[in-house]
Amino acid sequence: MSDLLENGTATQHEYNASEIQVLEGLEAVRKRPGMYIGSTSASGLHHLVYEIVDNAIDEALAGYCTEISVTINPGNSITVVDNGRGIPVDIQAQTGKPALEVVYTILHAGGKFGGGGYKVSGGLHGVGASVVNACSEWLEVRVHKNGQIYEMKFSRGKVTQAMTVIGETDHTGTEVTFQPDPEMFEELEYSYETLHRRMREQAFLNAGLKIIMTDARPGQEQTEEMCYEGGIREFVTFINDDRGTEPIHPQVIYMAGEKEDAMAEIAMQYTDSYNELIVSFANNIHTPEGGMHEEGFKRALTGVINAYGKKMKLLKDDDKLSGDDCREGLTCIISVKLTEAQFEGQTKAKLGNSEIRTLVSNVVTKALMEFLEENPSVGKAVIEKALLASQARAAARKARDSVRRKTGLESGQMSDKLQDCNERDPSLCEIYIVEGDSSAGSAIQGRDSRFQAILSMWGKMLNVEKARADKIYGNDKLYPLIVALGAGIGEEFNIEKLRYHKIIIMADADVDGSHIRTLLLTFFFRYMRPLIENGYVYSAVPPLYKLTRGRTTRVAYSDEQRDAISAELRGGNPNIKVDISRFKGLGEMDPHELWETTMDPEQRSLRRITLGDAISADKIFSVLMGEEVEPRRRWIEKNARYVENLDI
Ligand code: 1YM
User: Fold this and answer.
1) pLDDT computed for residue 464 by the predictor
2) In what order do the strands lie in the sheet with 253-259?
3) pLDDT under 50 in the chain at which residues?
4) What is the predicted pLDDT for the residue at 95?
5) CA-CA-CA-CA torsion for 42, 47, 49, 55, nearest 10 degrees?
6) In which domain, by residue range, is 284 found?
7) Fewer CB in 10 Å around end: N or C, the chain?
8) How many CB atoms within 10 Å of residue 273?
9) Dist CA 648 CA 630 (whole Å)
10) Computed from CA positions of residues 380, 384, 389, 394, in that sequence, does the dihedral angle turn out positive or negative?
């Protein structure tokens, strides 16, 4: 085997196990795409774009590329262009093929390829390019290099046009266009929103890099140029603006440092919100499950705030601010770059490198103390805010204790809103959270009471955004839910005590349903986050249509499925009448229907809620329920068609 160097020459090195992959070729990708791009649904489809863009961003990190453009073309092909050096086109000694061809046709393990590159780049040197090629009906690359334009074409991973010089050029760069393979993907339509959000995030993370996002599909034409000289500082300002939270000090605090081949940068600002928002990245990859960089940050923050408070006599000797107190209202971006990032956790979205904890902690300890000492008015505001949070937490504890005494939380007395199941092993138990008494009635009759419990929620739920923890504990809507789950709440939450390992939100497929889902997710996200992190929260998927032909009845969960089933029931005979009716709501289904379509483990479909879902819910919630009028107005205008009936 050989490593390809920047100039296209090859060096010998020992064959090792990680390169066995190379031998599998791209057929492996086509056989099991999920292993390489996660899924073949919308998320996998968008992942293709990120793989190509990542190569361009690596080139920017290496210091050679300043501009990247991403275009959704009519027909949902994608074009990505960068102004870097251009992928090497030299003939590789070992294979006798141009490097360009090797990059696009050979599946290679990360890091093994390419000698150059920035020390702390994603470090993958185009590993994704061949995967994208394998997943594309067709893919074309044009490289501007050495004054010439080289072109090469592929279909489903195979070369259809060898590398050809098609003209001359006065600049360098790479241009890739691909059409995702309809044989592989269930979803073929790109979402401008999704790509735009990701590109904006990348523009914030790579200060000064210009990213141009364009939708060229007829009727949807739009383009946006994104370039943030301030990098993650501007990211913090943007988030606070977007959420409508008001900063309590004018400037964003920025800290950065590096050690050996790792670097860390942190931008933070306190706001008047009661919630913290820490968003972390490793090598520009979002790490929603946190990890060592977040740990290092939190540890240092708590240490510095307490030490500063004591030093400035803003805290008494026996005052001690907890981590949560120190983070209330904080918006923070942490971005680290390192050579060999280890991703762990359920969704490989948690950073495991422990050396990063020390780096981040050292950077924050030093820089934050300096900042606060130079800006005593900010220091004072931060300590006062944390003290208030601490007092609220004490009040919450009191409220919780009193609730416990009054209502027997300790004795585990369940509310009459819960119809429990017989089984006691949590791993076998499910709880359906149902809105409204009529749906709850059907669910109670339709369920399998051996392992399915039903909790009915009713009326308007508490606005979690506007309430501190002390109000949450005593709330009569949330209380039955807290008791039923049995694991406590907030700092005291103990997943070991959880009584059900499937918590299923069953709400209608309409605006009100999505409202209650958003409320519940936000509550779980803020007060019972391990539920989501452990993958215990689900959303039931009720059917949308009922199709009847004679005595045959079927249900459909989407418009496409409705059309397919309707055709199937007609059996190619257009004269046969199939009756199609729309389910208006769960409350309308009889218990038997509800069991068959939505609750029977053999037939139902459940959607597992991810941390990402919860974060989006939290965001929607903050915007809709927060104090600020302007972001709410903007959000409603943008999403008007979804929120017609939403009661805010
Ligand atoms: C629109 C997608 O792929 N740009 C790109 C890729 C590479 C280079 C430059 C590059 C890298 C190196 C040297 C190096 C890649 N090169 C390779 C490999 N844009 C896009 N721009 N010269 C150019 O890493 O040393 C893989 S990707 F391996 F051939 F060097």
Assistant:
1) 65
2) 253-259, 262-270, 330-338, 277-282, 285-286
3) 1-23, 109-124, 408, 627, 639-648
4) 85
5) 180
6) 232-393
7) C
8) 22
9) 14
10) positive
Cβ atoms of residues 173 and 84 within 8 Å: yes
- Both tokens of 482, joined, read 């807290």
579 is catalytic: no
Number of domains comprising the chain? 3
Pairing between β-strand 606-608 and β-strand 552-556 as defined by DSSP bridges: unpaired
Whether residue 240 is found in the same domain as residue 175: no
3-state secondary structure 492-504: HCCHHHCCCCEEE
Which alpha helices (H) appear in 264-414, and where do they start and end? 292-311, 323-327, 354-374, 376-407
Measure the CA–CA gap between 611 and 289, rounded to whole angstroms. Answer: 8
Ligand 1: centre distance to CA 86 (Å): 6
Say if ligand 1 is within 6 A of residue 199 CB: no
Instruction: From 52, 84, 87, select the one nearest 171 (Cα to Cα).
Output: 84
pLDDT given at position 462:
66
| Residue 423 belongs to some domain of the structure | yes
| CA separation for the pair 302, 366 (Å, rounded) | 13
CATH number of the domain that 633 lies in? 3.40.50.670
**Tokens 């150059």 sit at which residue?**
116
Q: Could you tell me if 331 and 444 lie in one domain?
A: no
pLDDT value of residue 471: 75
pLDDT for the residue 414: 72
Residues 279 and 372 in one domain: yes
Q: Is the domain of 204 the same as that of 249?
A: no
Same domain, residue pair 417 and 389: no
- Tell how far the Cα of 66 is from the centroid of ligand 1, in angstroms: 14
Residue written as tokens 């209380």? 479
Indicate if 57 and 152 belong to the same structural domain: yes
Sign for the pseudo-dihedral over CA of 476, 480, 483, 488: negative
On whether residue 374 sits in a domain, the answer given is: yes
Does ligand 1 lie within 6 Å of residue 113's CB atom?
Answer: yes
Please say if 242 is a catalytic residue: no
Q: Which mutation among 108, 125, 141 tests ligand 1's pocket best, with the greatest number of atoms within 8 A of CB?
A: 125
Catalytic residue among 435, 593, 596, 613: 435
Q: Give the end-to-end CA distance of the chain in Å, rounded to a whole number.
A: 63
